[in-house]
Specification:
binds magnesium ion; 11 helices; binds 1,4-dihydronicotinamide adenine dinucleotide; two-stranded antiparallel sheet; alpha/beta; ten-stranded mixed sheet; 41% helix
Amino acid sequence: MKTYEIAVIPGDGIGKEVVPAATEVLDAVAEVHGGISFQYSHFPWSCDYYEQHGQMMPDDGLDILQNYEAIFLGAVGDPGRVPDHVSLWGLLIKIRREFEQVINIRPAKYFRGLASPLLNPNDFDLLVVRENSEGEYSEIGGRIHKGDDEIAIQNAVFTRKGTERAIRYAFDLAQKRRGHVTSATKSNGIVYSMPFWDQVFQEVSQSYPHVQTASVHIDALSAFFVTKPHTFDVIAASNLFGDILTDIGAAIMGSIGIAPAANINLNGKYPSMFEPVHGSAPDIAGQGIANPIGQIWTAKMMLDHLGHQEMGQHLLKVVEDVTQSGVKTKDIGGSSTTKQVTHEIINRLKR
Ligand code: NAI
Ligand code: MG
């Protein structure tokens, strides 16, 4: 029996509702399949914690987290009490950066039982690999002068190391999927970084002769996510392009409440972190109606990462079965509570 040590940070708002739901489901999958179990350590780091201690997590927070095999996080943010830049940078972004979680992966697929806003959703099933450490989201630049003479300079930073590892990760994933990688580029408008990105993409592709490739400008690619998402398998994208594309991915599925994500550490020095795309949803927090699927699908990504793809596949199939049967939360057109959806998923897993 392998027992995984997982650090659990529910965070704020609906994070505190969907995280317990997802760990309950994880335990049920492990029980049904056997051979593994989970040992959770819960950390109350959140905006509540900030109000009591003046910081989002203790000084040795990262030292504590470093010892776990994975971090399972809900959502962070309570803008009525703590400014977002304080809460997110004090916890979530700190973990991503310090733990060198250089890749962010976000799948999107046609989800059975869910009304996609697309007229003909077909059967799309794609995965965006987003560079998560540099690119357009750099802190290099500055502002000078005030008023009419003011100048703001924001530098995009593309290192060979960062670019290559993100692109290579996309190719590795594509080899295990349908064998196709699309590069999100904009080398017709951005004249230094994007031709460099294209060059690295071209170079990396040489080591994967069986993977088919395409290079598409980000503006056209965004449109194709809406008009023909079924033509994509894996998409390799820079930090900004990946960020924008994945919001379109969540939108064409039908709800932000189901979209999962993983922040991957590649050098093995630190744990990876699994968190849904959605935030703390203060507008519905405390009502017991949050959709737990985003967090549960995120748990599936953690299972995949830990090497249990067959369990992950089973879990996702059951979640889709439950959605198709009509047991769903309000955001996706149902009337069930978080607990009802969770228990239906667990019952079907055990069936
Ligand atoms: P949000 O994702 O929390 O909510 C946007 C809308 O989607 C709301 O109407 C909400 O009710 C709905 N929604 C989201 N998840 C849902 C779910 N599981 N079930 C049903 N409905 C759901 O984004 P918003 O309102 O912009 O941000 C709220 C707070 O969350 C802010 O403090 C923000 O900074 C933070 N945030 C944190 C993230 C994280 O921890 N990774 C990501 C995005 C936002
Ligand atoms: Mg975003």
